[in-house]
Design brief:
Elements: H1 2-8, E1 18-22, E2 25-31, E3 67-68, E4 88-89, E5 92-93, H2 95-112, E6 119-121, E7 129-134, E8 139-150, H3 170-177, E9 181-184, E10 191-194, H4 196-203, H5 213-228, H6 238-251, H7 261-278, H8 297-312
């Protein structure tokens, strides 16, 4: 807990396991042990079970583009605890059941370590485990997500890098893919694909040519937090802005494209306005998935109005 607090206060180096969704809302992926040697394989098509193990007459819905099933057979010799019926059904590792076990262990750990005055588990909707953490500055909310880390493996559905693109370089893209991806327990039946390590590598040294990409990102993020989309649960998060930055870097790969700071900020803001207005922002690695698909459209429209007002009179950016 003390390590988390230090990280959340920004006193440690960037950690890909932590996503800052807003100034008071964080998402932390908690790595799961005992699952090694992952290999993508064709899974059976239909599932006819409930979360309690009962049989269904019709199959459970198939996973969406950014989700997948996870079978024990996908791993080479998983540890024995993963065969426990508390976490699996018919050979599937079920996210909702894993989260239940994790939540029980978390509550026990908070009590046994005497942290009940600093950390409390909040009521949750769905599979999220939410905790309130008292820091020296303020109370923050943290979403804890059990995560399977899959190193040195790149999912077939993530067709990246795209052909004829000049950013990032071929060598850098190869390095990024070697970091693999994660599967996060964020829904009842299906695991969410996450590329946090790859995103960290993309962000690191993003301005090694002397450009202002990261500075532009920070300015736009501050504008969002201060006026366009404030609050603890914003409809547009730092992750959305990061994705937008990647797409913009890909479209404008040259050093000369990132020399005019004011112009670059306005370009990023214009692209954000377009995405928010159209309720459409493609995931950077799985481009067929729209990150704004389930966002509140009324909130998006309100943000679009605020951004448009800014673009009409951007004032002094530097």
């Amino acid at each position: 807990m003390s390590k988390w607090s230090a990280l959340l206060r920004g006193r440690c180096a960037y950690n890909p396991a932590i996503q800052v969704l807003s100034p008071t809302l964080y998402l932390i992926s908690v790595p799961l042990q005992g699952l090694m040697g992952y290999k993508e394989r064709r899974t059976r098509q239909w599932r006819y079970y409930t979360l309690t193990g009962s049989r269904l007459l019709s199959p459970v819905r198939e996973p969406e583009k950014l989700h997948q099933w996870l079978e024990l057979e996908s791993f080479v010799n998983p540890s024995q605890e993963w065969h426990d019926a508390r976490m699996t059904i018919e050979g599937d590792i079920v996210p909702a059941k894993v989260v239940n076990v994790f939540k029980d262990l978390l509550e026990t750990s908070i009590k046994t370590r005497g942290l009940t005055n600093k950390v409390s588990v909040l009521e949750s909707v769905g599979t999220a485990v939410r905790v309130a953490v008292e820091t020296s500055e303020a109370q923050i909310e943290v979403k804890l997500v059990p995560t399977v880390e899959l190193m040195n493996y790149w999912p077939k559905r993530a067709r990246w890098p795209r052909l004829f693109r000049r950013w990032p370089s071929t060598e850098r893209a190869r390095c990024i893919k070697s970091f693999g991806f994660n599967l996060m327990a964020s829904s009842n039946y299906h695991w969410l694909l996450s590329f946090s390590r790859a995103e960290q590598v993309l962000l690191s040294n993003i301005d090694e040519d002397g450009g202002c990409r990261r500075k532009c990102y920070r300015v736009v993020r501050q504008l969002k937090e201060d006026g366009w989309c404030p609050g603890s649960k914003p409809v547009i998060t730092a992750f959305h802005l990061q994705t937008l930055l990647f797409w913009t870097c890909e479209k404008y790969p040259c050093t000369r494209d990132w020399k005019d700071f004011r112009g670059c900020v306005l370009r990023l803001v214009q692209k954000l306005h377009k995405c928010v207005s159209q309720h459409y922002l493609r995931h950077y690695f799985i481009r067929s998935h729209n990150l704004l698909k389930y966002s509140n459209t009324n909130e998006l429209d309100e943000v679009a109005k605020k951004i448009n007002h800014f673009l009409e009179n951007p004032g002094h950016l530097c």
